[in-house]
Amino acid sequence: MKKTILTIVIIVILVVVGIILVKNMPAQKTTKTTVPKETVTPGITNPAVETPNVPVEGAKQAAPGTSFVTPKGEVVTPEGTPVKQDVLPGSPEAPKPSKSLTAEEIPAGAVQLNVTASGFTPNEFSIKAGQVVTLTVTAGDEKTHVFKFDDPSLSAVAIGIAGHETRAITFKAPSKGDYSFFCDVPGHSQRGEKGVMHVK
After folding, report:
1. What pLDDT sits at residue 44?
2. pTM for this prediction
3. Is 24 left (phi over 0), alpha (psi -120 to 50) or beta?
4. How far apart are CA 159 and CA 22, in angstroms?
5. CA nearest 63: which of 17, 132, 156, 120?
6. In angstroms, rounded to a whole number, what is the distance separating the alpha carbons of residues 185 and 147?
7. Residue 93, class by beta-carbon neighbours within 10 Å (0-12 exposed, 13-18 middle, 19+ buried)?
8. What SS3 string covers 105-132?
9. Which CATH number is 96-199 given?
10. Tens digits of per-residue pLDDT, 21-79?
């Protein structure tokens, strides 16, 4: 019992340190880019936009601050190497969680989860094996929550959020199977903050 409590305390400390490190990271260097008039999307009036340095030509972020995705469908680090999903969250090789997002910054097609003391809504979702997934987690209450998967192959896919905050993470879906997820704050999983990702 003491070992279990010690393990939980260590995990929570690591997650909190990871969240603090992510929040205190310096902003990505940006370069000013002018979009040619003929490529401006209708409704966008200011063609001068700030864009982060792109690690691989044509790579894009689904949400501000998340890892880049190459045109070939690889999720990559800022250096352009494929991310590792089985490492510690917040490590240099891990997928990067976004900054705090507004409703307008949530990407179309993202899997959107809401979490409160009552649990995750929805508490299950389905994706295809090998698919690049952008997952958003929103705290629907004033509490802090930490989204994580049980499976060690997805240990790096984790998001810590403060009350009423939304963050996103982009990762590649693993092989077919069911992958349970939960809130890693002590006691939250036991009260029902858990669910399942079905990979087809």
Report:
1. 35
2. 0.73
3. alpha
4. 10
5. 132
6. 9
7. middle
8. HCCCCCEEEEEECCEEECCEEEECCCCE
9. 2.60.40.420
10. 556 655 544 444 333 333 333 333 333 344 567 888 899 999 999 999 999 999 999 99
